[in-house]
Amino acid sequence: xxxxxxxxxxxxxxxxxxxxxxxxxxxxxxxxxxxxxxxxxxxxxxxxxxxxxxxxxxxxxxxxxxxxxxxxxxxxxxxxxxxxxxxxxxxxxxxxxxxxxxxxxxxxxxxxxxxxxxxxxxxxxxxxxxxxxxxxxxxxxxxxxxxxxxxxxxxxxxxxxxxxxxxxxxxxxxxxxxxxxxxxxxxxxxxxxxxxxxxxxxxxxxxxxxxxxxxxxxxxxxxxxxxxxxxxxxxxxxxxxxxxxxxxxxxxxxxxxxxxxxxxxxxxxxxxxxxxxxxxx
Length: 281
Prior knowledge:
The protein is mainly alpha-helical. It contains ten helices and four strands, in the order E-E-H-H-H-H-E-E-H-H-H-H-H-H. The strands form two sheets. It has a two-stranded antiparallel ribbon.
């Protein structure tokens, strides 16, 4: 739902449908407010239909739809504060993935026997029964670093507008705002090349390959190469998505002032009015 909300804002209007009901006091004293909109209802119906189809049929298309949804959700929830943490995370999983694929066949065995949508399935044309697999970890982990690159591109764009005086970091980026995405496009291209190399090695050796063996060097090399070519290596290393204490205090005081100013507005929303009517009854 979070994916479609910025794309179709008219379908996700706040307080579009508000329904209030009250339970017996011994169960719950406060009035319960059901607040939704067209977009949430459509997403709920589609999610329910896709889930039912996967339970009864378990076809690879529905399986992949659920798996990709998990990827989007995971990438949107996990935020890296800087590139060094991202490099350390990928490097650790790089060693982990190699050991459990080459050193032991546990990961391959579990991936083949586990039916939950925690991997992408690609049918093999010559064998309709067997599938090629790509674990979600091979998508989510590099994807988290890709999202950091996109935020860094946005930071550079805003920093250029403010002539280098920008201190604020941005976790939310408007999809309708146009800016140059050098780091984001570079890491995507290198990631795709890493996937191509992975499948080439898979067909050549005829043995399961740890995708992170090729994806981790590709992603790290992409960021380093782009930062060196743009002469922004030091800026990239120093980039931090946590503001300093002074900025935090200033932001906190501003937020308190905003909250005080917005109290009358909040009391006039449909949800609050519905609660008042129930309470008065």
